[in-house]
């Protein structure tokens, strides 16, 4: 049995960031558990053709580990993967990581006050658990009749089979979301025929992507403050979008104009233009960026299919209009389990219920996206109501890390053995989140999206400016929690104090 103070599950941006910040503050008794063989998480697993980030490179990095050598304004998957591993090497975190270690179950043991973590490489016990698994880790397959009986090649975008040669093949792509709009232009270049199955047309804006010159990279590296100023400017511009998304959807009218111009520029056929034009407001679903998607759909070897899929046969796909299209391979680009992740079933709280069971009755709820009542000593990274529709998740992750590290400083000072957010605090916080989202484009934009849970609440997104989230996570507010000490404190050390700030800020 392996016993540690802190177990970190996941070695992507969240888990790696947590390990670095703990290490920098003198907390060395931790282990990172990951099912893969190197750092990267989502950016290690998603290797499909065209994989890239929709957030500018300078924002998509840790503030404490800026990269002056980004090759482009929007980085591609291999470069982001290299960056993450470079940072991990810099802080020598490979030695603190157990690779190829699949976490199969985690359960809080009230008697010992520890998390019991079962893995493919044995059991671990930890006083505290940081779940850095992320929302985009469990691929979601479409619920389509007959798909399991397809005899050709089939794989999800997040589990790309690079050994299968698609050149000249008849290929179907199911989905037109973020991954699909990157995959489709690449496949269109080499397949014999490509059928694109669209359920809902997305808004796709031009992608302001370009390579950085050697002079720019030199300036980022050698001119003091230049890269941070560039990063701050990009951040500020994106924060303006957040106001429109949350409070004034009509402000996003310029995005609709840009989206329609992008369609007109990329597609010559009027009927096809109409088919790819969304009938809901910009921002209601994730805003996508591409300069190549529409021209790809306009190619002679590509067909956009808007009729619903009726079934998958052994050799192809049949749509509701009765048309059967034979294919050699099916690429599933239907996203991930976000509000219903299978991971939640394997996190068992103090009363024996899993996180999935708790959220089945309440909806996805946490306090500041980080702690959940009924799950002592557990910290979620990128938890409920922390997602974004306009800027970098790394900023949100670093905000959570501030909160996390401040807790462990207090834990060390007062020898706190157990911490659990109060149910009334969690409830009040989430009521406030939903109230702030009432005027948002996600509620008023006329679309259905994975942003909402089964209760109709928007439980994935943060409302408004991200600097407000940074503000409320700057310090750990003990007043919001029930805590107990591991020892009787002497007269010099006092008792665990209550935080002065409002728990509803």
TrEMBL record:
<feature type="region of interest" description="Disordered">
    <location>
        <begin position="486"/>
        <end position="505"/>
    </location>
</feature>
<dbReference type="InterPro" id="IPR051209">
    <property type="entry name" value="FAD-bind_Monooxygenase_sf"/>
</dbReference>
<dbReference type="GO" id="GO:0004497">
    <property type="term" value="F:monooxygenase activity"/>
</dbReference>
<keyword id="KW-0503">Monooxygenase</keyword>
<feature type="compositionally biased region" description="Polar residues">
    <location>
        <begin position="486"/>
        <end position="495"/>
    </location>
</feature>
<keyword id="KW-0560">Oxidoreductase</keyword>
<dbReference type="InterPro" id="IPR036188">
    <property type="entry name" value="FAD/NAD-bd_sf"/>
</dbReference>
<dbReference type="Pfam" id="PF13738">
    <property type="entry name" value="Pyr_redox_3"/>
</dbReference>
<protein>
    <submittedName>
        <fullName>Cyclohexanone monooxygenase</fullName>
    </submittedName>
</protein>
């Amino acid at each position: 049995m392996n016993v540690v103070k802190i177990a970190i599950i996941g070695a992507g941006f969240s888990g790696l960031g947590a390990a670095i910040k703990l290490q920098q503050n003198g907390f060395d008794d931790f282990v990172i558990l990951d099912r893969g063989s190197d750092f990267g998480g989502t950016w290690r697993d998603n290797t499909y053709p065209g994989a890239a980030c929709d957030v500018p490179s300078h924002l998509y990095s840790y503030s404490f580990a800026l990269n002056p050598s980004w090759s482009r304004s929007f980085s591609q998957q291999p470069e982001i993967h290299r960056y993450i591993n470079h940072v991990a090497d810099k802080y020598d975190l490979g030695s603190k990581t157990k690779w190829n270690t699949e976490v199969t179950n985690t359960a809080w043991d009230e008697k010992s006050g520890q998390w019991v973590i079962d893995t493919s490489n044995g059991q671990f016990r930890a006083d505290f658990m940081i779940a850095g698994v992320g929302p985009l880790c469990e691929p979601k397959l479409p619920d389509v009749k007959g798909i399991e009986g397809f005899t050709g090649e089939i794989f999800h975008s997040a589990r790309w089979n690079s050994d299968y040669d698609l050149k000249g093949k008849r290929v179907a792509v199911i989905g037109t979301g973020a991954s699909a709009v990157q995959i489709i232009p690449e496949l269109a270049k080499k397949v014999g025929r490509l059928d694109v199955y669209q359920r809902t047309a997305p808004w796709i804006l031009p992608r302001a992507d370009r390579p950085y010159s050697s002079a720019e990279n030199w300036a980022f590296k050698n001119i003091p403050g230049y890269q941070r100023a560039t990063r701050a400017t990009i951040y500020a511009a994106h924060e303006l979008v957040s106001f429109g998304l949350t409070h004034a959807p009509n402000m996003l009218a310029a995005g609709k104009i840009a989206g329609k111009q992008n369609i007109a520029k990329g597609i010559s056929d009027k009927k096809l233009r109409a088919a790819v034009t969304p009938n809901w407001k910009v921002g209601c679903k994730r805003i996508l960026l591409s300069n190549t998607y529409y021209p790809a759909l306009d190619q002679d070897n590509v067909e956009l299919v808007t009729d619903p899929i009726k079934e998958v046969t052994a050799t192809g796909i049949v749509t509701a209009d009765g048309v059967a299209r034979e294919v050699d391979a099916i690429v599933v680009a239907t996203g991930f389990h976000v509000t219903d992740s299978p991971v939640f079933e394997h996190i068992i709280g103090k009363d024996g219920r899993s996180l999935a069971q708790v959220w089945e009755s309440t909806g996805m709820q946490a306090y500041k996206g980080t702690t959940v009542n009924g799950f002592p000593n557990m910290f979620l990274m990128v938890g409920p109501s922390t997602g974004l529709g306009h800027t970098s998740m790394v900023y949100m992750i670093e905000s959570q890390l501030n909160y996390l590290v401040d807790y462990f400083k207090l834990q060390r000072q007062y020898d706190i053995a157990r911490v659990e957010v109060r149910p009334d605090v969690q409830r009040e916080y989430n009521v406030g989140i939903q109230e702030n989202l009432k005027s948002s484009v996600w509620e008023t934009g006329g679309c259905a999206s994975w942003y909402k849970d089964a209760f109709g609440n928007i439980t994935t997104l943060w409302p408004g400016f991200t600097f407000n989230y940074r503000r409320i996570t700057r310090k750990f507010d003990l007043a919001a929690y029930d805590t107990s000490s591991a020892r009787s404190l002497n007269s010099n050390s006092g008792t665990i104090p209550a935080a002065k700030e409002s728990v509803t800020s």
